[in-house]
Fold this sequence. Notes:
Layout: E1 15-17, E2 31-38, H1 41-44, E3 49-56, E4 72-77, E5 84-89, E6 94-103, E7 118-122, E8 126-132, E9 135-141, H2 143-154, H3 161-168, H4 172-196, H5 203-228, H6 233-244, H7 257-262, H8 264-280, H9 291-304, H10 307-320, H11 331-337, H12 341-351, E10 365-367, E11 372-373, E12 382-388, H13 393-401, H14 403-409, E13 415-421, H15 426-435, E14 444-447, H16 456-460, E15 468-473, E16 476-479, H17 497-510
Parallel strand pairs: 2-8, 12-13, 13-14
Antiparallel strand pairs: 1-5, 2-5, 3-4, 3-6, 6-7, 8-9, 10-11, 10-14, 12-15, 15-16
Amino acid sequence: xKHIKFLFxxxxxxxxxxxxxxxxDPIIGPTITLHIKITDxxxxxxxxxxxxxxxxxxxxxxxxxxxxxxxxxxxxxxKFNGSNTFIIPSPQNKMYLHISCSKRTGSKRSIFNALDNxxxxxxxxxxxxxxxxxxFAFSGSGSKMLNLQNELIRLxxxxxxxxxxxxxLRKYLKYFNLRNVQADSVLKVQLKLLKKxxxxxxxxxxxxxxxxxxxxxYYWEIYAYNLEAQQNEIYLDSLKRFYSGKKxxxxxxxxxxxxLTLSPNYSNYLVEELNMLGKMNQSNYxxxxxxxxxxxxxxxxxxxxxxxxxxKLLAMFLMRMINSPAxxxxxxxxxxxxxxxxxxxxxxxxxxxxxKGQPFKDFKLFGEDSKIYSLADFKNKIVVxxxxxxxxxxxxxxxDAMKPVYDHYKENNKVVFVSVSIDKSKExxxxxxxxGKYTHDGSVNLFTNGEGQxxxxxxxxxxxxxxxxxxxxxxxxxxxxxxxxxxGVQPGLTISRGATELIETIDEALK
Length: 511
């Protein structure tokens, strides 16, 4: 199936200004201007700190989960003696913005977590932003909505130790009920605050923030349940009983689907709930989502929702399932069901780079032999590419689980195993190669040049979970989400089902 490429007018450029620079390429069209001043002493202590701003046209929480085609990331070295100015193209009325402070080496430091720190900002805003010890403070044109979002984030429900103590004591139903009551109480405070400032906002912005409050409240509840469900079977059984008797939110009275769609957090909650309820119907709550699971959740979305909200949820759910090998089989049929060009485009931008038959993105990466490798170095080869990093437990497990696959092709010079490390430190990478914990003898070992997650290859394929495998045939993507071998072997078998399926995938590529 060939999709028509949807063309959206979008300017992916930024101008960073200071007292000594000039703008050579002026931006034509609407913009958002940010003047950022740093007063946080913790940021001042960072080595070579820089500001990182990520923007997207799409109302999605956690912008780092979007593909590189769906967002734009801007950087500027931090100046502490003046304003750090960004002029950002704004091709639509509302943009979605994430701001963080990072340093070039070591760990990243974000002011807030990724979900909370997605700000809805109106086109044409000229904002002064101060980043201090207590977070962000905004002033200027368009700042009222940003400061209100800040306050709503600050009020978010935070369970205390006594709540989690109930989990430790396995008083699960009591924990669920008390957490539910306390979260509802916080939601009432947030809605009361919003009502107090209703006159400061236009009707649409007010309603979007109402939906966001519900999204905050229910997303974090279900997110916690999903994490905690791995405690034991008793917890999971208790959760099923609690949730089956709980009154579902479903929708917010007086808010249209178009408003709910514009709320990043509300749709995020819906997808998280759909995912949790779907897993509850599986025999194994934490198994890798397979064909039947994805099919059932997609049918659930089609049955429960209509219009543009349905379109957004269909696209978001497939994007959420990207680590499942089964998900690509639903791309074309789901694309055809979605009516909105906007969400067709969002799904297409995310999925098409992962579609079989697409040219694999070229790269220039250092090898342990100090040679710079590119895609051309693997011409006429089947490449099994493994992305990993030092300290990744699952990466070392996969290395052991891959042994039957390595052994199967060790005499076949048409199959090449390539490891790509996202380690920031070259010395750490070299030490890990020497230790043999993550790679096999005979692999071509490559390094992302200290760029880590910011490497163009990593960003292009939106790799956020490790280890990640890809199979390439003569420069063409053959499998974006190939089967993964596991350590466990089922009775009567000599290698894992995942290893067998990966060998079958490579054999198919060799034909």
